[in-house]
């Protein structure tokens, strides 16, 4: 029997007239389901990542109830179940460290339970890729609905206070420029409701990817969390998943080279998060596909950046929603999109857009006057990043820094950074390049979002607000600045970042896509290699250390990728890299 046949039959156990059916129905009746309900078909799981330890996902319980209404309206039986939930601010050592574990939880729960299809309820950054990765590996019909952005706040004179406004205030606090009473007031103004970060951060970027891959309904990314529009989206998703199950559409039918290209082009047009590069590669790997830095760069370079939304632009997510959201972006960059790809409502993008007209507002730039002729994410290569690095060019504050040569000031890990960055004796000036290493997926472990290295206090006091910064860590999608992240291979895996020393010259040339040092071969050979991380003996730490792949392979575990994907030892570093063998 094929996997497709097995998947189709999962919920049929509830209709079975023998012992299996009796026990399946009987156990549900014990939960209070009626005689009629336990005979409904299809059976739809709702994988709910709501958790009080994940404030961004706290509103998902309400959405699950609306979703159940939609599933029942379409004749199905909804059965909600919890999964691991990963909060960006609360999870240690990092949220990415647990993404693959969450994907395994989602995969096994979908595969192990008698459901015909599933709706994934996600929100905070890593929950969405984890759910998509797990659903792809389980390969039963699946849809997704994200929590949606949280409300905009106000703080002092800023009447449209969004989460990206917090970072400059934190920098000012470090140099003593924010009073204690204002700091306390700020605590109550950062998050004034449930939902995900209210700018084009990682959560919103990943929700847009889910929309473009055909998991989430068109237009579902931007309506506010807990809005009536999102409640209706939950009902509509519930109705639609019943149709998706009856059509037999599987996640691996949705994730193709063309839909991956569509997704990344929209990320490029949106000014989306650098984290999208890691997660989209991991998603591709679960479908037996590989994107690679060259294709990411070619897609970004040929897609105009048009979404004028924070943190890189001016407008709010609500303005972009009013302008038509992701479908309006697809229409605006139209010729670069494969319009024959399916949306989650069963229509192709071509069919969907043929019937749509979108209102104009300045949240989307005209195609003949884009914010940039190319997409906002720039893939860098060079002797400092043989397997790539990423810069969100749209977030650069001082355009001159996109082409810059400067002297490295190197920090080994967070403790070193924190102990020296504000030292008045630190030998640094505005032209220096701040380097942070030892914080990659192996070294940290889990690539914390610390690539947005703070400006040294003495330079901040002198008015410096941006510098070239580079690391093997990640950065928050809500951050901006001339911040190069995901330098690969990371220092702890033998990457060249590990042999840099303070005083070495570094060049960033974003236009040419180059990140390099100027050390001779003799100097490289003479440098001491970067220390390997301590060996882990058990549990998740052992699993992670033994099996995690580098950033250019999506940081997935090597054994979770689809068949047809193998890993080989990289001759340039101590780490494995993925290859497609079919
Ligand atoms: Fe959860 Fe931003 S911290 S979505």
Question: What's the SSE blueprint?
Answer:
Layout: H1 3-9, H2 19-29, E1 43-48, H3 60-73, E2 77-82, H4 96-112, E3 117-122, H5 127-138, E4 142-146, E5 153-155, E6 158-161, H6 166-174, H7 180-187, H8 202-213, H9 228-247, H10 251-254, H11 257-270, H12 275-286, H13 292-301, H14 317-322, H15 325-332, H16 349-354, E7 377-382, E8 385-392, E9 403-412, H17 413-420, E10 433-437, H18 457-461, E11 468-471, E12 483-485, E13 505-509, E14 514-517, H19 521-526, H20 539-547, E15 565-569, E16 576-580
Parallel strand pairs: 1-2, 1-3, 3-4, 9-10, 10-11, 11-12
Antiparallel strand pairs: 5-6, 7-8, 8-12, 9-13, 13-14, 15-16
Helix pairs in contact: 3-9, 4-5, 5-8, 5-12, 8-11, 8-12, 11-12
Unreliable runs: 1-8
Q: In whole angstroms, how far apart are the ends?
A: 23 Å
CATH homologous superfamily of the largest domain, by name? Response regulator
Strands ordered across the widest β-sheet: 7-8-12-11-10-9-13-14
Number of strands: 16
Number of helices: 20
Average pLDDT confidence is 95
Structural class: alpha/beta
**Amount of helix:** 25-40%
State which percent range the strand residues make up. Answer: 5-15%
Main beta sheet: strand number and arrangement? 8 strands, mixed
The gross shape turns out to be: globular
Question: Over the alpha carbons, how many angstroms does the gyration radius reach?
Answer: 24 Å
Return the CATH topology of the largest domain: Rossmann fold
- CATH architecture term of the largest domain: 3-Layer(aba) Sandwich
Number of domains: 5
- CATH uppermost class of the largest domain: Alpha Beta
What small molecules does the structure contain?
FE2/S2 (inorganic) cluster
């Amino acid at each position: 029997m094929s996997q497709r046949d097995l998947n189709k039959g999962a919920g049929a156990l509830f209709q079975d007239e023998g012992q299996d059916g009796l026990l399946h129905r009987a156990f549900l009746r014990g939960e209070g389901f009626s005689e009629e309900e336990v005979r409904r078909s299809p059976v739809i799981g709702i994988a709910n990542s709501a958790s009080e330890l994940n404030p961004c996902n706290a509103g998902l319980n309400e959405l699950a109830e609306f979703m159940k209404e939609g599933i029942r309206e379409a004749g199905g039986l909804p059965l909600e179940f919890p999964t691991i939930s990963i909060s960006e601010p609360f999870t240690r050592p990092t949220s990415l460290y647990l993404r693959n574990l969450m994907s395994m939880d989602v995969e096994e729960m979908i595969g192990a339970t008698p459901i015909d299809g599933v709706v994934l309820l996600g929100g905070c950054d890593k929950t969405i890729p984890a759910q998509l990765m797990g659903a792809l590996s389980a390969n039963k019909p699946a849809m997704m609905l994200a929590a949606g952005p949280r409300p905009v706040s106000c703080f002092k004179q800023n009447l449209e206070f969004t989460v990206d406004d917090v970072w400059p205030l934190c920098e000012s606090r470090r140099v003593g420029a924010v009073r204690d009473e204002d700091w306390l007031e700020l605590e109550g103004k950062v998050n004034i409701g449930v939902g995900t970060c209210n700018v084009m951060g990682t959560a919103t970027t990943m929700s847009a990817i889910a929309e473009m891959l055909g998991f989430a309904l068109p237009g579902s990314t931007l309506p506010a969390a807990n809005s009536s529009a999102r409640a209706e989206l939950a009902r509509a998703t519930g109705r639609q998943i019943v149709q998706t199950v009856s059509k037999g559409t599987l996640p691996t039918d949705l994730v193709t080279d063309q839909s991956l290209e569509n997704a990344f082009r929209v990320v490029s047009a949106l000014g989306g998060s650098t984290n999208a590069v890691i997660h989209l590669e991991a998603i591709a790997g679960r479908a037996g596909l590989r994107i690679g830095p060259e294709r990411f760069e070619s897609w970004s370079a040929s897609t105009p950046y048009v979404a004028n939304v924070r943190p890189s632009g001016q407008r709010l997510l609500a303005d972009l929603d009013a302008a038509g959201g992701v479908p309006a972006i697809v229409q605006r960059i139209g010729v670069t999109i494969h319009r024959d790809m399916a949306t989650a409502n069963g229509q192709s993008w071509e069919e969907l857009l043929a019937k749509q007209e979108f209102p104009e507002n300045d949240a989307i730039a005209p195609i003949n006057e884009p914010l940039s002729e190319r997409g906002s994410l720039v893939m860098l290569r060079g002797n400092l990043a043989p397997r790539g690095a990423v810069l969100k060019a749209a977030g650069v504050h001082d355009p001159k820094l996109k082409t810059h040569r400067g002297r490295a000031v190197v920090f080994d890990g967070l403790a070193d950074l924190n102990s020296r960055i504000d030292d008045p004796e630190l030998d640094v000036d505005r032209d220096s390049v701040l380097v942070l290493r030892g914080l990659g997926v192996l070294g940290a472990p889990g690539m914390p979002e610390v690539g947005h290295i703070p400006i040294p206090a003495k330079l901040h006091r002198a008015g410096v607000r941006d510098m070239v910064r580079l690391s093997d860590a990640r950065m928050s999608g809500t951050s901006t600045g001339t911040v190069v992240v995901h330098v690969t291979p990371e220092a702890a895996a033998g990457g060249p970042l590990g042999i840099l020393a303070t005083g070495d010259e570094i060049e960033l040339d974003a236009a040419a896509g180059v990140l390099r040092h100027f050390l001779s071969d003799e100097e490289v050979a003479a440098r001491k290699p970067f220390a390997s991380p301590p060996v882990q003996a058990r549990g998740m730490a052992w699993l992670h250390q033994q099996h995690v792949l580098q950033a250019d392979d999506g940081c997935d575990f090597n054994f979770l990728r689809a068949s047809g994907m193998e890993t080989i030892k990289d001759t340039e570093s101590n780490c494995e890299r993925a290859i497609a063998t079919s």
